[in-house]
Amino acid sequence: MPEKLHPNVARVEQALRERQVTGEVVVLDDAAPTAATAAAQLGCEIGAIANSLIFDADGAPLLVLTSGAHRVNTDLIARLVGAAKVRRATPEFVREHTGQPIGGVAPVGHPAPVRTLVDTWLGKHEVVWAAAGHPHSVFPTSFDELVRITGGTPAEVE
């Protein structure tokens, strides 16, 4: 583990402590910008990876924490959140609203709260892994804990 954590990871760790999350941040040897690469390094099923995907919902950020085994149906989530249009956000939009890069977006630690949907399929796994602010960092959590720490809404997103 590096002596000094990336500032994004330190912010996420602080946010996790404030929310009384017991899982510790794990720094991976290699970047894990996708669910498949994260699952391979962690030795878990791809469905146990909580992808943090930022969408542009009528100009507002929307975080969808989805199982790595799923693809998000943007028409469905637009209806769920009452948006006229939901589309994948640009890297600049993601960084502006989360302070974190695509491939490392954590569920918490953003400059301001982001409306969040949490894929109910994550509840099928006792332990799920979420990014911790950088493509080399993750933390273990659970579906219930993700809902609690994000103030998110459980939803079917596929």
UniProtKB/TrEMBL annotation:
Q: Which residues form the YbaK/aminoacyl-tRNA synthetase-associated domain?
A: 31-148
**What protein is this chain from?**
YbaK/EbsC family protein
SUPFAM superfamilies attached to this UniProt entry: YbaK/ProRS associated domain
* A single MF term (Gene Ontology): aminoacyl-tRNA deacylase activity
Sequence intervals crossing the membrane: none
